[in-house]
Amino acid sequence: MAQSLGNLFIVAAPSGAGKSSLIKALIESHTKGGLSNLPQLSVSHTTRSPREGEVDGEHYHFVDKSTFEKLIAQDAFYEYAEVFGNYYGTSKAAISDKLEQGIDVFLDIDWQGARQIKAINDKVIGIFILPPSVEELHKRLVGRGKDSEEVIHKRMSEALSEMSHFNEFDYVLVNDDFDAALHDFRSIVNASSLLLEKQILKHKDWLASLR
Questions:
Q1: Residue 35 pLDDT greater than 60, yes or no
Q2: 3-class secondary structure for 16-32?
Q3: Is the sign of the CA dihedral 41, 43, 44, 48 positive or negative?
Q4: 8-42+102-208 belongs to which CATH class?
Q5: Strand 40-41 vs strand 125-130: parallel, antiparallel, or unpaired?
Q6: Are 127 and 139 a contacting pair, CB within 8 Å?
Q7: Which of 3, 109, 157, 199 could staple 113 via S-S, CB 3.0–4.6 A?
Q8: Residue 148: pLDDT above 60?
């Protein structure tokens, strides 16, 4: 893959580990800090219907099945999957445009999607977020008060399967204390922008003069 100033991060975790909250907090901290090239969460394409309150282009790019399948034929997705009769996919073009502008992009996907993307882009940075224990994860899912015990049991089973793939990622964060996990998450993102290959792109003429 061609080099770009921005970094592409895959962030995976079982439900209840705090992944969405960490991504949201990181983006908000950059926004409040008035920093340029704010990191962004990738907006996926889907063929499912919008739910109440969802906005096209903000939560998902909503398209019909025919349009999605044309995009598949055009090799337009980094990864895609069919879940319960609906397609979900990550657009190559949308991400590449952001990365070339020096914008970091987060992909909120599972380990299977991560495998697909890593096969295409070996520069992607994988971060897996774990709860401190199985017991704590169950406690968090119950504490939400949204799901029945049957649904929670299913989510726990899916979580155990998801967590078994933690070793396929570059970084692992154990979210025991949210503020500490956010600090570590931010450290990974900040350090990635200082990699030699990124600095060569950013300060091309200056660094070339030193050789």
A1: no
A2: CCCHHHHHHHHHHHHHH
A3: positive
A4: alpha beta
A5: unpaired
A6: no
A7: 109
A8: yes
DSSP string, 23-83: HHHHHHHHHHTT-SS--EE---EE-SPPPTT--BTTTBEE--HHHHHHHHHTT-EEEEEEE
Q: Can you give the pLDDT at residue 36?
A: 56
Residue recorded with tokens 């397609």:
87
One-letter identity of residue 20: S
Chain centroid offset of residue 183 CA: 17
Q: How far apart are CA 197 and CA 1, in angstroms?
A: 13
Q: Domain residues of the chain, as ranges?
A: 8-42+102-208
Q: Which residues of 23-44 are buried (b: 16+ CB within 10 A; e: fewer)?
A: bebbbeebeeeeeeeebbbbbb
Amino acid letter at 183? H
pLDDT at 32: 66
Instruction: Indicate if the pLDDT at residue 158 is higher than 80.
Output: yes
pLDDT tens for each residue of 62-108: 999 999 999 999 999 988 988 888 999 999 988 998 998 889 999 98
Amino acid at 109: I
